[in-house]
Amino acid sequence: MKQISKEKGTLSRLASYLSGYRAAMIFACVSAVVSVVAGLCGPILIGRAVDCMLGKGSVDFGRLGGILVGLGVVYAINVVFQWTLTFITSKVSYQAAQGLRRDGFAKLRRFPLRYFDTHARGDVISRFVNDCDTISDGLIQSLSVLLTGVVTVAGALGFMLYINVWITLIVVATTPLSIWVAKFISSHSRRMFREQSAIVGELSGIVEEMVGGQKTVKAFCYEGTANARFRETNARLKTVGVKAQFYSSLTNPTTRYINNLIYILLGVVGGLFAIQARISVGDLSSFLIYSTQFAKPVNEITGVITQLQASLASARRIFELLDGEEETPDVLGRPLPSDVQGHIVFDNVSFAYQPSRPLIRHLSLDIPAGSKVAIVGTTGAGKTTLVNLLMRFYDVDEGRILLDGTDIRDFPRDWLRQNFGMVLQDTWLFHGTIAENIAYGKPDATREDIIVAAKAAHAHSFIRRLEKGYDTVITQDGENLSQGQKQLLTIARIMLVDPPMVILDEATSNIDTLTEIKVQQAFLQMTQGRTSFVIAHRLSTIREADRILLMENGDVVESGTHEELLERKGKYHALYHSQFARAEGDGQTA
Hints:
This protein is of the alpha/beta class. The protein is built from 21 helices and 14 strands. It has a domain at about 10-320: ABC transporter type 1, transmembrane domain (ABC transporter transmembrane region fold). It is elongated. Mean pLDDT is about 80; it is low at about 585-590.
């Protein structure tokens, strides 16, 4: 019962996406009625035509000719309005799928970063592409069948009752058998369609992962393992898909078989009635045609059950996305500071990505405005987590983070992030020109502003050597640029925005030593008087910081300047000599 309730809930929500096209649906219903009524007039005219042919040499050609003209008219009307119905249902179905994609994409913008950390990108993409296509295909078929089916069943039943009540009772009594068989089979195939949709999402994730990381795949000779993973998942999809299609495909031929048996029974009983002169041969011909039309919607509905079940399974996956937990709403209406100083305070902050594994516990820090803070520590110490909390990619579990004395949760996220410039080790560029990528955070920037920022990031020289300069189109993720060039562009992007606070997360890790020295000089100028957080292992970055935080298991275990921490000969001293002293001895200032 619970599963049936879920199916009804999914179907109800899916139907809500059609409610906005009420006028079109009304016209579709009218088209269905006109088309079906015209089609139902045909058999009665055929019966009349049969009765015009009494025997050899005894044919009423005058009356027969009028009937044939009438048949041509009603079937022409049937064809026109059937086309209209198909056109409207197709348009409404694709518009409904468009609405689902629109709402889904809008939902993505409201998801917290945690959602993307716990869901495969390929599976999310599959919900927008494969699942929405499955829904639109299912709606196109089911809407047309349902609209015409109801009218056809009612109309055919009415005409059969008009011709002969007793034979009609045989049809009514035996039809539930077809419906029961269809329901029995579909209930067993429903689970397989849900599993099929889930595996399609998993397979999309594997393909996206392999295509996106092709260089890494080849570098580690992972092709064999990747192929094995793909084949295993693809084999599961084939197995489940074949089972789902096999069981669901039993529905239509089984119901057709039962309907044919019923048709034989009607022919025998009708023949006996005709022999007894209780029904004419023409009326019996019309009745048999109507019995076929009466059964046709049942067969068609059972035929689209396969597609409808797949659509419901896909709709459930999309609604799971739409029902996902969103970010806590921003506090709006509060006056925003016109001048950000950059005084940051971590006040008794605790945070965990997973509640069972706390990472940061009761952390308190006071970072004066304009200071440069370097954060060091081993992998997993919590360095990037501090940045995530500052940017409100995640919110603290306990305590608070203050910006100029105000809890950052009292600021809109967009405003807060606009006041931070962030350069990551992992670069991200989009398909567009060099200029468009640099101006990503400031779309209204002039070409002169873009060039100034590129020169400050020491990217101007390599951009100028490109065939079209700043108008050179780069591929998605900048695959036609070197890693160092891509990082220079992301640095120029921040220099163009010129924010009051800066976060540098291994921002120069992919740049050669000579260029890095120049970029570091630009950074010194950019961070002058600005609060800046630097996550890096380069000597010059650490030495020039006003304060160095050594993190371990989410806690700041040591804090001070480079010289102060070396004099203490604690954990920073050991870390420095294990990672940096040799480089310093070689004369590297990075």
